[in-house]
Amino acid sequence: MHLFILAAALSGALPAPLAQDQPAAASAAPAVPAEPCATAGGLLPGSGLCRDAAMARLPSTRRNAWTPPIGCDTTAQEIPLGAGRWLLYAAQRCGEAVARLEAAPGPSNSQPTSQQGVLELRYAAAARSKVLPGKRALTLVEGKPAPYEAVHALVMNSLSPKQVRDCALRTPDVEGYPIDALVFDLPPAEARKTAALDEPCGPYGRSARTDSYWRLFDGIGVFYAFGDDQPEFDPASLTVYTPGN
What we know:
Largest sheet: 5 strands, antiparallel
Strand content: 15-25%
Distance between the termini: 88 Å
Oligomer: single chain
Low-confidence stretches: 1-27, 108-112
Mean pLDDT: 81
């Protein structure tokens, strides 16, 4: 009887098991750190911008605004330029497929030139089209000391002496162009007479359609000539970004 009472008393005095003696599975797993821009559309690795922040920087200046097709939306993409700058643009995204442009120096297959500072922007990937990959999307011109002298040099290089005298960078006087579009064209009176004439001022000049034009901004010139292709990016969205600005 006395032994039973003593054993019971001793068992009641034993301390409770310490927390670290519990099985390891009971401890909480460490949190996995989120990737940069995980909740902001992902990271643009070159510029270091989150895609959502990059999209917020992009302008929209077309009268007839470009929109992606039904079932698609847009996301930001980037292209490296000189002096640490980046060209940002809104690219078409359809599901997991995203359009992407890449830059390569001239010559272009269609418009050969050896001029420095001329880049051909081609489709490296398309979101929906089967024919766009590899095609030229834009021609981009950088130049110093005067930023747009290189644009004039590129355009005039392929013109006859008479065209050089007559052609100039002008604001189009017909509807259908973006607000800030410019075209290399003949004087207004002569341009109206030759409205149906294609490329009276060469391959980088005005065409018979309103899908061929220049935009000059941030020290660069961009030549748009889409032809029958529907672009898989917003033509008005292009903007130059310098990290730190």
